[in-house]
Amino acid sequence: MMLTCPLCAGTDTRHFHRDRWRDYYRCECCRLVFVPPHQRLAPAAEKAVYDQHENRPDDPGYRRFLARLYTPLRARLTPGARGLDFGAGPGPTLSVMFEEAGHPMAIYDSFYAPDDRVLASEYDFITATEVVEHLFAPGRELEALAGLLRPGGWLGLMTKRVSTPEAFARWHYILDPTHVCFFSEASFEWLADHLGMDLLLPAPDVALLQRRGG
């Protein structure tokens, strides 16, 4: 089956893996691994999974988890930089952490905070933690987010990265039925080049992309 890559829109895609529930294809251009559209969950079933999440701002373990993105990004921000937490989920927490550090924040989530007005503003930084693996059209959505950044602004992404086919076959990350896109280091390199941004990979599951011109 020849499928179009949801990141780069390339058509050179090859079957990569199959488990008991789904197939996975890899794009030979940007190296994204993705689930074919007909095997994605319907919106109601997808939201039912998210409704089970119990992430809260008062959970120190969850804060430590988010600190993997928060710490390297916070170190690169100017005082008072304004941010957007995209895909904040049912218990927004990263936005609270940045607000505590003096950064005004907006939040957006297609299920829990679907206020499209915040997508018409400009920001100094945008975060998406454990979000991109859920996106059906990551190329289009990440390009739109990058377009909201002021010159010099940062796009901070947190998602686990694909390594080898052998590791992928054993990977717990693919067991979540809402995970449909899996980025590799090469995927982020393609994205940065496509968007004309500079890329930093400060941790195995963190990517920081900076808009040029700041």
UniProtKB/TrEMBL annotation:
Pfam families: Methyltransf_23. GO terms for molecular function: methyltransferase activity. SUPFAM superfamilies: S-adenosyl-L-methionine-dependent methyltransferases. InterPro entries: SAM-dependent_MTases_sf. It comes from the Bacteria. Keywords: Methyltransferase, Transferase. GO terms for biological process: methylation. The keyword Calcium does not apply. The keyword Methyltransferase applies. This is Class I SAM-dependent methyltransferase. It comes from Billgrantia campisalis. The lineage of its organism: Bacteria, Pseudomonadati, Pseudomonadota, Gammaproteobacteria, Oceanospirillales.
